[in-house]
Amino acid sequence: GVSGALHVHRVDAQCRTEYLGTVKLDRPALALALPPGQARYLVVAFDTSSLLGGSRSTSAGTFVVPRPGRRYELAVRYRDSVYDVSLSESDGRTRRALPHREPEGCRGTG
C-alpha cells in the first residue's frame, strides 16, 4: 500500500525550517490555509510497503511565500511507483506553475 502526508514547516529569515505539523493525504482533496507573507516549506512524503518488497519512503519539498489574494494548489499524484508533486498559484483569472525551490535559496524572497 501507499500512504501520503504533507509536512508543513515555517521558514525564518535565516532560511532555517521549523516543523509545524502534518496533514495526512487520505482524501481526494484537502483545504489548508497558509498565512500570506509567511514563508513555508511544504514536504510531501510517500511511504510504500509490500509483502515482498518491504517498505520505502520518498519525499519532495518546495519553498513558498503565499501572497495575499492568491490561491495555491498543491497537486499530488502517485501511480505505479511514480509520484508527481506540483504547486501552482492563481489570482482568480490566471494560473501559473511555481518551480520547486529549496528553503536554502529563500534569502531576499521576503
Describe, in plain words, how this protein is organized in 3D.
Helices cover 0% and strands 56% of the residues. It is mostly beta strands and 110 residues long. The strands form 2 sheets. Strands 2-1-3-4 form a 4-stranded antiparallel β-sheet, with no helix packed on it. A 3-stranded antiparallel β-sheet has the order 5-6-7, with no helix packed on it. The N and C termini lie far apart (40 Å). The mean pLDDT is 86.
Could you give a short description of this structure?
By secondary structure, the chain is mainly beta.
Main features:
globular, four-stranded antiparallel sheet, three-stranded antiparallel sheet, about 110 residues
